[in-house]
Every structure is written in C-alpha cells, then in structure tokens.
Amino acid sequence: MPLPDYLVIFGRSFLFALATLLPILNPPAVAPIFWTMTEGASAATRLALAKRVAMHVGFMLAAAMLAGNVLLAFFGLSLAIVRVGGGMLVIASAWQLVNSPDGGSARVARSAEPFSPEMARDRAFYPITFPITCGPGSIAAAITVGASLRDPDHITSLVRLAGSLPGVIVTALILYVCLRFAAQFLYRLGESGTSVFMRLSAFILLCLGVQIMWEGLQELLVHLLVQVHHATAAAG
C-alpha cells in the first residue's frame, strides 16, 4: 500500500477516535462538577489537579483502547458488567452532588475548609477521574474504538492504532483546558447561575449513570432470554 493511503488511514483513525471519545467525555459538562468537588482548593492546587486528571484520563482511554478487550477476556468480564458496575458508581457520586448543600453558611464553611495538595492527590483518580470524568461509558467507547481499528493486515492495524492515539491526546488536552478555565466560566455565571448550572450538571450525570446501568442490564437480560430460549428449544 502506498504511503498516501497510510496517511489517509492515519487521519481517519484520528478523527474517528476524537469524534467518538470527545462527545462521551463531554469536558464542558465536567468542569462545574470538578469545581464543586474541589471547593476550598487554591488556584495552584486546582491547576495541578487538572493536569493530573487529564493525564489519568488520557492513560485510561489509551489503555482501554489498546488492551481493553484483552483485559476483559482475561478476567472473564463483559462490557455489560462494566456498564452495570460503573453506572452504579456514577449514580452514587452524582447523587451526593445533587444532594450537597449550597449557599448560605454551609457553602461558606465548605469554602473555608482547606483542600490540600495531599487531598488532591488522594482524590485525583477516585472519584474525580473515575467515575466522574472518565466513566464506564467513556471506557466502553474506548474499547469499542480499539476493536473497530483492528484489521487483518497488521501494518494497517498499527497505522490505525497510531492514528487514534493523537485523538486521545487531543481529547485529554481539551479536558485540561476546560478544567483549567472552569473558574472563569463559572465566574461569568454568577453565584446563583453557578449553583443552578452545577445542580443541572449533577442531575445530568445522574441520568447518564442510570442510562449506563440500564444499557448493561438490558444486554444481560437479552443474553439471559436467549439462553432460556435455547434451553427450551433443546428440551423440546
């Protein structure tokens, strides 16, 4: 295959990975949730945490895309199980955000609490990176992208995988920019607008968790019904 064809495959793989992962990750919707969960942190701590979260997300997406199917097969897990378990984690985290107090003395007290760099390191992966920022939906999408890029021709498969990695890097960079400038965005909304937007984002996250878990349950139920049908047909 000539070099221009490989370049076209590389570009298509890049756009495919970017167009698949970015809407599911949805960095603008994550920014206010990130700001809420790091309330009381200094600007330097938030900046360092934004970098750490973006790096974690990039590594998770790349690992899921390159080796997700192998790991699931090794542990005997299916994407449906990942969706159910991850959806439950998203629901639990979103429920805490929806029911967290806002405004008045509770908000002032929460803002006065120190959010140290040690706390930032402890919470960088769980729950901020997973499942809030990069949940089971994003991981399942990355695994799907990795499976879609496979090709019987090993060279073509390598070119597709190589093209998808810059898509993951660009996605992580866009996430970092959104987290980095979350304060400026929320400042324009004002205190009441920020509170409403945060509540709405947390509710949307809750709905996404329910949808992720329901999709996994549906797949498991369909698989169960198929097994029952085959067993009944064999017995008959």
Notes on the structure:
By secondary structure, this protein is mostly helical. It has one domain. 88% of the residues lie in helices and 0% in strands. It has helices spanning 3-25, 27-37, 43-75, 79-98, 104-112, 117-133, 136-148, 154-180, 182-235. α3 packs antiparallel against α8 (154-180). It is globular and about 65 Å long. 34% of the residues are buried.
Question: What labels describe this entry?
Answer:
mainly alpha; 236 residues; globular; 9 helices; 88% helix; single chain
Fold topology:
Blueprint: H1 3-25, H2 27-37, H3 43-75, H4 79-98, H5 104-112, H6 117-133, H7 136-148, H8 154-180, H9 182-235
Helix pairs in contact: 1-7, 1-8, 2-8, 2-9, 3-6, 3-7, 3-8, 4-9
The rough form would be described as globular
String of helices and strands? HHHHHHHHH
Number of self-contained structural domains: 1
Estimated radius of gyration:
21 Å
The helix fraction, in percent, is over 70%
Describe the structure concisely for a colleague:
This protein is mainly α and 236 residues long.
